[in-house]
């Protein structure tokens, strides 16, 4: 089934709607399972969504006490580095909301290597989900993803060995071609595709070609990794602004 694509006039409108969908996912997960397990996207696009979620009028309506926040990927930098996805989320969201201690799970980039950080993060996820990391897959209630202008998502870059990993939940990845040129830690496709709900947030004309390729071309996952996001038993939706959608032939 073709994923739902919603086109917004600008990134502000996209961010507000994305925040509504995050709140809806949390409500549903807490109601059914008593908790919400979310994986957040990095980069710049989702920051507006996080800032909207942090607004008092919205934040007060979200059950943060039963929400657990993970990261779909991270740059292998210190948590206080400006390039850190955790630093961005802490600034935009965590500093303003009552997520209980132990409910936000940054990637442990203080460890000596990206590979050890990836392995430890997989163990962190396993503990939080209460499963063994050599059996079932962790099923996130919602994963937010972005799209790079080369078609990457999370830190799954074109041609990278991480695209072909099926036996690990989290891997280290060499820097992609896009800044920042640092090693990455990323969830792998098996974990992404086990999610109950995936939302891509895509903004900017520089994404138009990659978005067209993924949604309307004949993309292969090696060249446009975002094309490999196909949740096995979950929903997939794209929230894009008009600039990013400028190469799409179908709208809505
Ligand atoms: C990262 C992200 C990455 C991001 C895309 C889009 O760590 O950079 O996880 O996958 O989502 O590169 O980034 P922008 O939203 O900044 O365009």
Textual characterization of the structure:
This protein has 252 residues and is of the alpha/beta class. It has one domain: Rossmann fold. It contains seven helices and nine strands, in the order βαβααββααβββαβαβ. It has helices at residues 11-33, 47-54, 56-59, 85-92, 114-129, 189-192, 208-216, and strands at 4-8, 36-40, 67-71, 73-75, 142-145, 170-173, 184-187, 197-202, 235-241. The strands form two sheets. It has a six-stranded parallel beta sheet, with helices on one face. A three-stranded antiparallel beta sheet has the order 4-7-6. β8 (197-202), α7 and β9 form a beta-alpha-beta unit. The protein is globular. The two termini are 14 Å apart. 6-phosphogluconic acid (6PG) binds next to β4.
What's the overall average pLDDT, rounded? Answer: 95
Largest sheet: 6 strands, parallel
Query: What is the percentage of strand-forming residues?
Result: 15-25%
Low-confidence runs (pLDDT<50, min 5 residues)?
Answer: none
Which word captures the global form? globular
Q: Distance between termini?
A: 14 Å
The assigned CATH architecture is 3-Layer(aba) Sandwich
Q: What is the total number of structural domains?
A: 1
Helix content: 25-40%
Strands side by side in the biggest sheet = 1-9-8-5-2-3
Q: Kindly state the number of beta strands.
A: 9
If you consult CATH, what is the topology?
Rossmann fold
Instruction: Give the count of helical stretches.
Output: 7
- The CATH class name reads Alpha Beta
Order of helices and strands: EHEHHEEHHEEEHEHE
Could you say which structural class the secondary elements and strand pairing correspond to?
A: alpha/beta
Radius of gyration based on Cα positions: 17 Å
The ligands found in this model are: 6-phosphogluconic acid
């Amino acid at each position: 089934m073709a994923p739902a694509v919603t086109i917004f006039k600008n990134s502000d409108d996209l961010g507000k709607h994305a925040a509504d969908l995050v709140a809806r996912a949390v409500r549903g997960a807490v109601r059914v399972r008593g908790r919400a397990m979310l994986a957040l996207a990095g980069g710049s696009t989702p920051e507006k969504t996080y800032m909207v979620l942090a607004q008092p009028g919205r934040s007060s309506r979200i059950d943060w006490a039963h929400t657990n926040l993970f990261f779909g990927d991270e740059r292998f930098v210190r948590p206080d580095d400006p390039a850190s996805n955790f630093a961005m989320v802490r600034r935009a969201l965590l500093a303003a909301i009552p997520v209980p201690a132990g409910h936000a799970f940054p990637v442990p980039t203080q460890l000596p290597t990206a590979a050890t950080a990836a392995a430890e993060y997989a163990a962190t996820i396993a503990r939080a989900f209460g499963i063994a990391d050599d059996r079932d897959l962790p099923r996130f209630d919602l994963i937010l993803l972005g799209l790079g202008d080369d078609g990457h998502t999370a830190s799954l870059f074109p041609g990278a060995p991480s695209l072909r990993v099926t036996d690990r939940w989290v891997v280290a990845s060499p820097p992609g071609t896009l800044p920042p040129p640092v090693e990455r830690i990323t969830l792998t496709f098996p974990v992404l595709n086990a999610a109950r709900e995936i939302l891509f947030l895509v903004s900017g004309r520089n994404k138009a070609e990659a978005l067209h390729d993924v949604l309307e071309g004949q993309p292969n996952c090696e060249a446009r990794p975002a094309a490999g996001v196909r949740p096995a038993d979950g929903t997939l939706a794209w929230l894009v602004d008009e600039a990013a959608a400028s190469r799409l032939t179908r709208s809505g």
